[in-house]
Design goal:
Helices cover 26% and strands 12% of the residues. By secondary structure, it is of the alpha+beta class. It has two domains: 107 residues, Roll (Ubiquitin-like (UB roll)), CATH 3.10.20.740; 97 residues, Alpha-Beta Plaits, CATH 3.30.70. The strands form two sheets. A five-stranded mixed sheet has the order 2-1-5-3-4, sandwiched between helices. A hairpin with a 6-residue loop joins strand 3 and strand 4.
Amino acid sequence: MISLTINGLSVSVEQGSTLLEAAQFLGFPIPTLCHMEGLSPYGACRLCVVEIGTGPGAKLVSSCTYPAQDGMQVRTASERVLRARRMVIELLLASCPQSKTIQDLASAHGVRQQRFRQEHESCILCGRCVRMCSEQMMAGAIGFRGRGDTRSVGAPFDAKSEVCRLCGGCIYVCPACELRCTYQDQDRAICGGCANLSPPCVEKERFDDMMCYMNPCVACEIAKG
């Protein structure tokens, strides 16, 4: 067992636990986005940051990838941590402002505005879809391409994947796919929006006559509101 201090409380966790697993097991809430149970830790979104150490040497780390260590001092909700999380949420809002997942995170953390240029992107590069396709569906039909601001998700060489089974797993785990169901214009947030589906591993023409199969349907949730 490993002994450490989380939010001033001395605790013991199993060897090999990450800080996120330790905190969640003990009931300390830490928000996540790129992290998903059943998928390998990725640490892309940085929403799960916590503060470790004390004094000037204290630093922020992603709790989903950082291993718990003996004698570690961890704070999951210090002022520095909360400020960093709100900044991350603002950046996510600038990328995908119509994502219900991101909007809910903003509401939970008191973010009422974002100060960055609006992008209306269809992907936040969280890697959920890539890991789902590789680790759960055992297909590896999609992956990351490019670097920096040209980084994107898609099939190798933009060619039709021979291993994609059109299972929809990539869409199911995507926190930004709600954009594709509600379009970019709120006036067009109607059921049947899957005509606009264009994830990299799905052939659009195969889905033209399908109703939205997301549960719950994001467009219907908006209509009820």
